[in-house]
């Protein structure tokens, strides 16, 4: 039962998402505080809640796909009603925590996350192969929560650069997964970018979005007025690594299974830049 709970809430993915709030808080304030943990925990709860509701919405499609057929609701181990109850409890709990931290502003952000993810993005996935683009807006909400919890506003240039970085990052991240699991998505009845653009065009489009993400990362590092030289050097090294990795998408001998290694490498590089900037801001405020 515990294993099914972690599965239906996509706990690992939800936890990874919540870290965006933690890093944004440190990047904004250069401190580690109680508010940071409340913000991170609130994001974790709402991410788990909307993810559970997503599995309720898609359990029929999930049951047709090899990758997802063993999920609790899709496999029949958990009823959709139980999934709805878990989702509501988690979402309501997240509202309580975020209200205690940000008041109605936090409620509005989490309400938007629910509406955008479960009522807009989830249905749109079944109708459009490019749903990931408007869906990428969701990637900006966790860092926005962390930034606001640190006492800053979302109109600051540093946050705008951070938001653009997270937004652009979502698209190549998802399209690399499409390359790996396009057969599954087809079995589930989803239109995919692979079917819309074709294999070669999707590779080139993903490469373009990766280059855009690298450029957004360069702008992000520049905007944050980095304190440590080593931060600039390591960020540049990660950017070069991401660029070299991205070039594999343009090779004639590229195979779709190669997308797995590219997926992990570029995500590690892009996350590494966020971690470096967080450490840099913390050091800047303590030296």
TrEMBL record:
<protein>
    <recommendedName>
        <fullName>heme o synthase</fullName>
        <ecNumber>2.5.1.141</ecNumber>
    </recommendedName>
</protein>
<feature type="transmembrane region" description="Helical">
    <location>
        <begin position="162"/>
        <end position="181"/>
    </location>
</feature>
<keyword id="KW-0812">Transmembrane</keyword>
<keyword id="KW-0350">Heme biosynthesis</keyword>
<dbReference type="InterPro" id="IPR000537">
    <property type="entry name" value="UbiA_prenyltransferase"/>
</dbReference>
<keyword id="KW-1133">Transmembrane helix</keyword>
<keyword id="KW-1003">Cell membrane</keyword>
<feature type="transmembrane region" description="Helical">
    <location>
        <begin position="6"/>
        <end position="27"/>
    </location>
</feature>
<dbReference type="InterPro" id="IPR044878">
    <property type="entry name" value="UbiA_sf"/>
</dbReference>
<dbReference type="Pfam" id="PF01040">
    <property type="entry name" value="UbiA"/>
</dbReference>
<dbReference type="InterPro" id="IPR006369">
    <property type="entry name" value="Protohaem_IX_farnesylTrfase"/>
</dbReference>
<keyword id="KW-0808">Transferase</keyword>
<feature type="transmembrane region" description="Helical">
    <location>
        <begin position="262"/>
        <end position="279"/>
    </location>
</feature>
<feature type="transmembrane region" description="Helical">
    <location>
        <begin position="84"/>
        <end position="117"/>
    </location>
</feature>
<keyword id="KW-0472">Membrane</keyword>
<feature type="transmembrane region" description="Helical">
    <location>
        <begin position="129"/>
        <end position="150"/>
    </location>
</feature>
<feature type="transmembrane region" description="Helical">
    <location>
        <begin position="34"/>
        <end position="53"/>
    </location>
</feature>
<feature type="transmembrane region" description="Helical">
    <location>
        <begin position="228"/>
        <end position="250"/>
    </location>
</feature>
<feature type="transmembrane region" description="Helical">
    <location>
        <begin position="202"/>
        <end position="222"/>
    </location>
</feature>
């Amino acid at each position: 039962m515990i294993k099914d709970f972690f599965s239906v809430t996509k706990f690992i993915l939800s936890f990874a998402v919540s870290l965006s709030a933690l890093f944004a808080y440190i990047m904004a304030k250069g401190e580690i505080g109680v508010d940071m943990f409340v913000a991170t925990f609130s994001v974790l709860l709402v991410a788990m809640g909307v993810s559970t509701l997503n599995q309720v919405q898609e359990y029929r499609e999930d049951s047709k796909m090899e990758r997802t057929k063993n999920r609790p609701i899709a496999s029949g181990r958990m009823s959709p009603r139980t999934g709805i109850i878990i989702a509501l409890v988690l979402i309501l709990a997240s509202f309580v925590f975020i209200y205690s931290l940000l008041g109605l502003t936090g409620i509005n952000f989490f309400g938007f996350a629910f509406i955008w993810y479960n009522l807009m993005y989830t249905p749109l996935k079944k109708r459009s192969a490019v749903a990931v683009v408007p869906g990428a807006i969701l990637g900006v909400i966790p860092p926005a929560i962390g930034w606001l919890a640190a006492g800053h506003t979302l109109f600051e240039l540093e946050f705008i650069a951070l938001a653009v970085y997270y937004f652009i990052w979502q698209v190549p991240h998802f399209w690399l997964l499409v390359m790996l699991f396009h057969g599954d998505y087809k079995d589930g009845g989803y239109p995919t970018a692979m079917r819309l653009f074709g294999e070669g065009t999707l590779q080139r489009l993903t490469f373009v979005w990766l280059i855009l993400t690298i450029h957004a990362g360069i702008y992000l590092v520049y905007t944050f007025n980095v304190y440590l030289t080593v931060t600039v050097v390591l960020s540049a090294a990660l950017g070069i690594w991401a660029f070299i990795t991205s070039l594999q998408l343009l090779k004639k001998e590229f195979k779709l299974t190669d997308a797995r290694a590219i997926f992990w490498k570029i995500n590690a590089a892009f996350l590494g830049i966020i971690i470096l900037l967080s450490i840099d801001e913390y050091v800047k405020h303590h030296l």
